[in-house]
Amino acid sequence: MTQRTTYYEPLSPLSFLKRSAFVYPDKTAVVYKDKRYTYSEFYQRVNRLASALSRVGVGKGDKVAFICPNTPPMLEAHYAVPMLGAALVSVNIRLSPAEVAYILNHSDSKAVFVDNEFAHIVAAIKDQLPNIKTFVNICDVDDSRPLDGLEYEEFLATGSPDPRPNVIEDEMENITINYTSGTTGLPKGVMYHHRGAYMNALGEALEHLMSANSVYLWTLPMFHCNGWCYTWGVTAVGATHVCLRKVVPEEIYRLVEEEGVTHLCAAPTVLVSMANYPKARECKMKTKLKVITAGAPPAPTVIKNMEAIGAEVTQVYGLTEVYGPHTICEWRPEWNALPVDERAAIKARQGVAYITSEFVKVVDVSNMEEVPYDGQTLGEIVMRGNNVMLGYYKQPEDTERAFRGGWFHSGDLAVVHPNGYIEIKDRIKDIIISGGENISTVEVENCIYQHPDVLEVAVIAVPDPKWGEVPKAFVVPKPGTNPTVEEIINFCRERIARFKVPKAIEFGELPKTSTGKIMKYRLREKEWSGHEKRVN
Is the separation of the CB atoms in 105 and 126 below 8 Å? Predict the structure, then answer.
C-alpha cells in the first residue's frame, strides 16, 4: 500500500461522482421513466445507500449483491457499496436459482438487493443462503415485497445524505466481483480493483469522445463487466445516464429521439434487432448516435446496416477479466474515402489497445513469441496492464493458469494486419480443423450474414467420418423470408473456399446469454452427443 502524499492519491472512480455533484449539482444525472435526478440528488441517494448499508453492518472487505436490471438502484450501488470499502457483486438476472445460490455463497455476500421481477429466484433458495443477513426489495414493477426485508426507498431513508469519509487506502483494493458465464464449469468471480475501474472508465470517455453534453442509454447490462465501466465513465464527465429496464428496439428508438441519446453500447445481436426494426429509419436523431459494440466479432453487414440508419459504429474487444473493452478499432481519417464495404470490413476488426490499456499482442501459443504482422498467422491474444483483473476470487489455481507467462491469456485466436490492427478469427475452442485445414467460424459467419434473408447465424464444427469435423451453420431467417439450405450453401460457394462452405444448414432460434452472446457450446453439445467430445 502506498501512503497518501502531496504527489499521490489512490485512484478510485468514486471521485467522479463527488466531482460531478460539485461541478454540475443541478444538471440531470439519471433519467428513468418519469424520474429525473440531478447530480446533487444522485450523490445524496448514493450517500444514503452507503450509510444505510453501514448501519446494517456492511463494512470494509464485505460483499453486497444486487440482482437488478438497468434501473437507478443498480447504478447507485456502483458507488455506495465501494464507498464502504466493500465489493459489489452484480448478478446476472437471467441465471437459475442454483446458479444464483452458488454466486451468493461463493462471493460471501452479506446483503442482497433484489428487483421484484426476480425475487422468486431468491425466494426459492433463501434457506440455502446462511451468510445473507439483509434482504432488500426493489419494487419497480409492483409494490409487493416477496422477501423479508425493507423496500429499497425505505432502506435509503434509514441512511444519511451527508458525504462519507474516503476509506479507500489502497487503489488495488477490490471494488467489484463479476462472475463469468460458467460455460466450461462453475462461474469464476473476477475481481476488479479501484485503479483498474478508474482507468477503464476514463478510457471509455476518452475513446468515445464523451462530455457533459453526452447522453448515454443503458442498453448494455450493468451486471456485465459493470457495464464496461460506463457506470463510472458517464459520471466522470458529468454526462446523463438514461436507464432502460428492457432492451427492445421500439423503446431504444423512443429514448434516442426523446432524450437526445448520443451513446449506447450493445452486442451485435442487439444491433441486428435495431437495424431490422421496421421504423428504424423514422427515428429523428438530434445528433449522430455513437454505437460501441463488442461481445462477438460483428459481421461487416451488421455494421453497414446500422450506419445506414444514421449510427456510427465502433468495434471494441475485451473480456470480463479486463473490465470489458481492452482494444478498439481506432479509426483513421484516410479510411473515410474507402468504399462502404471496405470501411465496414475494417470496422469489424478489434484494432489496437485503448489509450489506458496499452499492452496487447498476439502470440504463438507454443512459445509466446509474437506472430508476424501478415494478416494470416493465427495466434492467441494476450494482455497485461492496469485494467487486468486482480484474479479469480478464491480460485488461485485458475488465476495462475490465466496469468501464465506474465500475461492474461484470452483464449481468442487472431491475426495481426500489417498496420498492427488485430482481427479475431475465433475462440481457440471454436476453430474448426477439417482435414488438417483451419477454418475460422467468424469468416464463414460473415459470409452468410451477407445473404439478404439472414438475420443471425452461428457456425460450429460437427463430426465427420472423413474429415474429422466440418462446418455446420445455424441460421435465423429474417421475418417473412424462407431461404433454403441449397440457397445458403450456393451463396457461400460463390464467396469462400469450398472446404470452408458449411456441409449442413439448420434453421431456427439460437441459444443466447443474457448479454446477447450466442451460446455455441450448447449447439456443440447437441451435435457431438455420442461422439468424441470437443473441448467446450
Answer: no
For residue 289, with 0-12 CB atoms within 10 Å meaning exposed, 13-18 middle and 19 or more buried, which class applies?
A: buried
CA distance to 267, 352, 521, per residue, from 226 (Å): 15, 22, 25
The whole-number pLDDT of residue 183 equals: 46
Burial 168-194 (b: 16+ CB within 10 A, else e): beebbbbbbbbbbbeeeeebbbbbbbb
For 70, phi and psi rounded to 5 degrees?
-80, 70
How does DSSP assign 494-516, residue by residue?
A: TTS-GGGS-SEEEES---B-TTS
CA–CA separation, 413 vs 430, rounded Å? 9
- In contact, 410 and 382? CB cutoff 8 Å: yes
Residue labelled with grid coordinates 429509419: 281
Phi, psi dihedrals of residue 20, rounded to the nearest 5°: -65, -35
Side-chain-facing half-sphere of 303: CA atoms under 13 Å: 25
Does residue 36 have a pLDDT over 60?
A: yes
Average pLDDT for 483-500 = 91
- Nearest to residue 78, comparing CAs of 179, 194, 180, 157? 194
In the three-class reduction of DSSP (H, G, I as helix; E, B as strand; rest coil), residue 411 is classed as: strand
Q: Is residue 8 part of a domain?
A: no
For residue 409, the SS3 value is strand
From the list 422, 433, 489, the residue with the least C-alpha distance to 457 is: 489
Q: Is residue 511 part of a domain?
A: yes
Q: Which three cell numbers stand for residue 472?
A: 455446420
H or E element in which residue 240 lies: strand 240-242
Give the per-residue pLDDT at 298: 67
- Global pTM reads 0.85
513 domain-assigned: yes
What average pLDDT does this structure show over 25-32? 98
Phi and psi dihedrals of 371, rounded to 5? -80, 155
For 48, phi then psi, to 5°, come to -60, -45
| Residues 46/230, Cβ–Cβ less than 8 Å | no
Burial class (CB in 10 A: 0-12, 13-18, 19+), 431: middle
DSSP three-state, residue 390: coil
| Pairwise CA distance, residues 319 & 221, whole Å | 14
Q: Locate 398 and state its grid cell.
A: 485458475
Question: In which domain, by residue range, is 498 found?
Answer: 432-528
Could you tell me if 505 and 488 are in contact, meaning their C-beta atoms sit under 8 angstroms apart? yes
The two beta strands, 311-319 and 324-328, are antiparallel
What's the domain count of the chain? 1
Helices (H), 353-473: 396-402, 441-449
- Look at 184-188, 248-252, 277-281, 409-413 and tell me which has the smallest mean pLDDT: 184-188
Query: Per-residue pLDDT for 215 more than 90?
Result: yes
Q: Is residue 463 part of a domain?
A: yes
CA distance 447 to 315: 18
Residue 499, pLDDT > 90, answer no
Displacement of CA 31 from its chain's centroid (Å): 21
Length in residues, the chain: 536
CATH number for the domain that contains residue 471: 3.30.300.30
CB atoms within 10 A of CB 315: 25
